[in-house]
Design brief:
368 residues; five-stranded parallel sheet; 14 helices; binds 6-O-phosphono-beta-D-glucopyranose; transferase; cytoplasm; carbohydrate derivative binding; glutamine amidotransferase; Glutamine--fructose-6-phosphate aminotransferase [isomerizing]
Amino acid sequence: EKGGYDWFMRKEIFEQPKAVADTLLGRYTAAGALQLDELHIGEDELRRIDKIIIVACGSAYYAGLVAKYAIEHWTRVACEVEIASEFRYRDPIIDGSTLVVTISQSGETADTLMAIRHAREQGAKVIAICNTNGATIPRESDAVLYTHAGPEIGVASTKGFLTQVAACYLLGLYLAQVRGTMYDDEIAKVMEELAATPPLIQQVLDSLDAIRELAARLVDTESVLFLGRHVGYPVALEGALKLKEIAYLHAEGFPAGELKHGPIALVDQGVPVFVVVPPQGRDQLHDKVISNIQEVRARGAFTVVVAEAGDPEVGAYADVLFSLPKVSTLLQPLLAAVPLQMFACEVATLKGYDVDQPRNLAKSVTVE
Ligand code: BG6
């Protein structure tokens, strides 16, 4: 059932173009308008929302962190993202105009379930983004937007994560459409770009030959740092989580701008630092991240850079470079996460670990 792959995780990494395409399928019109009739929450109700809180655990939480950038940008509604196990214990400010979006691949995670029960008791509307039909979390939510990733068997989420980002983007664009915060042609343009990502994910998958060699080179390293900025920051967190989960390797993700406020003290000769570089654009983010790569390299870091193809500035500072097809900043996580997933899979394989069933972890954690 692994379809010729050694691990379900590897199979699931390769299924991502289809998983994302299936998640988008049927949810927009030929003109690029969002059509999420399945939501069953009235448009008036969605117009009254004045705050969005995303609650989730693990990779789903990181998908939520990515989504925050897009949702706030598109809808101009304040969006918080919170670890589900922290949520109800801090007396969060919730009322009838709060929209809680919960993200869970399994739909059975107890921490997440408890969080949404609390939110509904306080009068919030809850939309679940879930991969499992009829699971407890969607059943206990007001509405559900299913990801269509197909069953995810590997404990470390891969296609689950990518499809969660895609589903959150559909929801964000839909809210922008209902609330009139974007023009129809703007929505159509983003939707067109989103719909065009599956073959680009495939291109990334086809370009990962160097990963095995990189994994062999770093297999005995003690610690790996991941840096990113804007939506690249949660991608860095997700890259680090994959290494912890399956390769039992200490790894941490940081916002690149925080480097100088502490983490750079960790950088020493040969320390591997992965850097997700934002696309070249009008803002200064790209150049600032390039400076961060120079800074860690000057202190001896071994730099692995994930950047847009043709970026003329990264080559000089990258010990190893992974190129991504050109997309806009908000869509880059759908591509940039892929080499990081594969890297973790290769390191864990080389170490001889059970990639699909890492020690101490369960695919779905049904206790708080
Ligand atoms: C963890 C899994 O325990 O639960 C992670 O090991 C997963 O891989 C997290 O991201 C959240 O799970 P779910 O099913 O709620 O998305």
